[in-house]
């Protein structure tokens, strides 16, 4: 089908230029839509005045203010979209209107994100396409174009550190370095189109959608009510929101990296719990380390310790569970997991020690049998010599 718009605009300088390659790969072109689906006009006409004739629906310039409504003409029309793709959602515009971006746009602020800031204009791809600007691997950079630009964001008094912080988080590492698409990016926590993800009343509660066990434990803990009174969010108070780092046992206890001492002081219940839980975790970690060393030594001697090594894995699992269990902030909960782990670690260590003892015993046995064999050999040789000497004597005599 003739497309005079593309033919002519490919040749024009920016900002009127349209890149034909991008335009051809755009999902709308792929689905048989054309320039006039968004801009109106008549692509069968070569004459620009006829092609871009307002009488043929040509709109002229589309302002930022108009963009969400333009996209919504189709994307909020469930019957229309269903004709193309029954599984595609049609709530983007209504969600967008509830977001800070949408609210500010309707107040006349055109610097906030509109559909094309996140999706692009003439090279829009499905969200599942790894080259899409809204694919999970690229979302953070898309948001950062504005949110990491202090000049652009100056008027709003918002920090501009989210991108940098996020890039240094466990979540980014899991997503970008290990390709773990179950780890969150900006839009996972904030919602694709602004409204919080399903089942989440506010962004601060989003952690619970993935970290279910920690959230359940927290809900049964003394902090649930205490934090609510202070107006503090649950997980974010201790872990932060964007720069979430790898947790470790020093975040408990009473050392300089302890989170607990931000609020608790020596002698109170929280202080004691922090100390106890850390001791329990460190104790189990040490027991596992020791058992591992003994098993390694036994293995080096060639003894078979595959089974206890495998079983030591259960002690590691118990340690992991104990670290989750700290979120009940009740030392007894942690102790229960730790004891299971300690029993396994001790049994593994015993198996290793036994293997080493057996090795020593076998070596002793070997030494003794060597001595025995040697004495038999020497004895035999002496006996043979004797025989030889005797027969010589006999032949000399004859
Ligand atoms: C023969 C060349 C030619 C054809 C065909 C043509 N255009 Fe244009 N178009 C132009 C030029 C030149 C301008 C810049 C006009 C100006 O600056 O006033 C323009 C401007 C535009 C603008 C910007 C309007 C604005 O006010 O900023 C849009 C959008 C546009 N064209 C879309 C289309 C579409 C859609 C079609 C096909 C239905 C089309 N054009 C066909 C040459 C063409
Ligand atoms: C999915 C809808 C959509 C389709 C399809 C589309 N455009 Fe656009 N186009 C837009 C929007 C929205 C803008 C405004 C972008 C902005 O300001 O960020 C725009 C901007 C433009 C501009 C620049 C106008 C200006 O004043 O800066 C031109 C020229 C243009 N389009 C031509 C085309 C041509 C030619 C095609 C077909 C190859 C096409 N468009 C297909 C939505 C579309
Ligand atoms: C702040 C950035 C942003 C803005 C603004 C935005 N989107 Fe999206 N959009 C996304 C992200 C992120 C995804 C989801 C990617 C994914 O599913 O992993 C998405 C997904 C989509 C999808 C695919 C279906 C779906 O809902 O998952 C459509 C269609 C869509 N957006 C249309 C729109 C329209 C129309 C607008 C304007 C009303 C808009 N978007 C505004 C970021 C944005
Ligand atoms: C004329 C109707 C129409 C308009 C206007 C329109 N779209 Fe679309 N859009 C579609 C259709 C149809 C599809 C293809 C759905 C399918 O088959 O998957 C689509 C697909 C998309 C997708 C890919 C969805 C996915 O993840 O599979 C995105 C993103 C998108 N459009 C964004 C936009 C944005 C942003 C605008 C406004 C600049 C816009 N659309 C304007 C009809 C339209
Ligand atoms: C085109 C620039 C732009 C892009 C791209 C953009 N934003 Fe924004 N965003 C803004 C501006 C400007 C504000 C400030 C509005 C206000 O607070 O009044 C804002 C506000 C926000 C807020 C509300 C902050 C608050 O507490 O006031 C959140 C959350 C947000 N954006 C998240 C995102 C996410 C997530 C993305 C990417 C998926 C994104 N934004 C992409 C410009 C942008
Ligand atoms: C793991 C979830 C999570 C991820 C990922 C995430 N955020 Fe946030 N974000 C939050 C929480 C929680 C808040 C604090 C919520 C509140 O104050 O209502 C927040 C606050 C914000 C704010 C408000 C200003 C501020 O810094 O407090 C902006 C803007 C923002 N995030 C943008 C982003 C951008 C851009 C990205 C990606 C680079 C991102 N967020 C990634 C959870 C997340
Ligand atoms: C979309 C799911 C999702 C959301 C939402 C989410 N996370 Fe995560 N989180 C993950 C994944 C996946 C990992 C990586 C697990 C791994 O590497 O073992 C992770 C890792 C972590 C870790 C490090 C765990 C470790 O053992 O190293 C912490 C701490 C964490 N998240 C806290 C949070 C907090 C706090 C929030 C809310 C602000 C949150 N997460 C929101 C999925 C999520
Ligand atoms: C943001 C402040 C804050 C942080 C950080 C914090 N707590 Fe608390 N905690 C409280 C408040 C407030 C209470 C309820 C008042 C009280 O009993 O002291 C409480 C209560 C407790 C209790 C119950 C005390 C009792 O006597 O019944 C325990 C146990 C506890 N916290 C353990 C911890 C541990 C362990 C950490 C570190 C991982 C920690 N808390 C970090 C504020 C905090
Ligand atoms: C009072 C402070 C505090 C609060 C509140 C808190 N955590 Fe933790 N979290 C910790 C400490 C301390 C560790 C380190 C435990 C260790 O490794 O010894 C940790 C470890 C973690 C880990 C890694 C270990 C594990 O459990 O698998 C994840 C994931 C995690 N927290 C998620 C969350 C989530 C989700 C919430 C909210 C429901 C939350 N945390 C609330 C202090 C806290």
Notable traits:
Butyryl-CoA Dehydrogenase, subunit A, domain 3, about 0% strand, about 400 residues, single chain, binds heme C, mainly alpha
The total of helices stands at: 21
Low-confidence stretches: none
What is the radius of gyration computed over CA atoms, rounded to a whole number of angstroms? 37 Å
The helix content is 55-70%
Mean pLDDT: 95
CATH architecture type of the domain at 272-365: Up-down Bundle
Distance between the termini: 127 Å
Name the overall outline.
elongated
The ligands bound in this entry are: heme C
What is the C-level CATH assignment of the domain at 272-365? Mainly Alpha
What fraction of residues sit in β-strands?
under 5%
Task: Give your account of this protein's structure.
The protein has 398 residues and is an all-alpha fold. The protein has helices at residues 4-9, 20-25, 27-30, 35-39, 48-51, 67-75, 78-82, 92-98, 100-106, 115-119, 139-147, 150-153, 162-167, 170-177, 186-190, 212-219, 222-230, 234-239, 269-300, 306-325, 331-397. The N and C termini lie far apart (127 Å). It is 58% helix and 0% strand. It is built from 21 helices and no strands. It has a domain at 272-365: Butyryl-CoA Dehydrogenase, subunit A, domain 3 (Up-down Bundle), CATH 1.20.140. Bound molecules: heme C (HEC) (9 copies). One heme C is lined by residues 207-208, 211, 214-215, 218, 223, 234-235, 237-239, 247-249, 251-252, 259, 281, 323-324, 326-327.
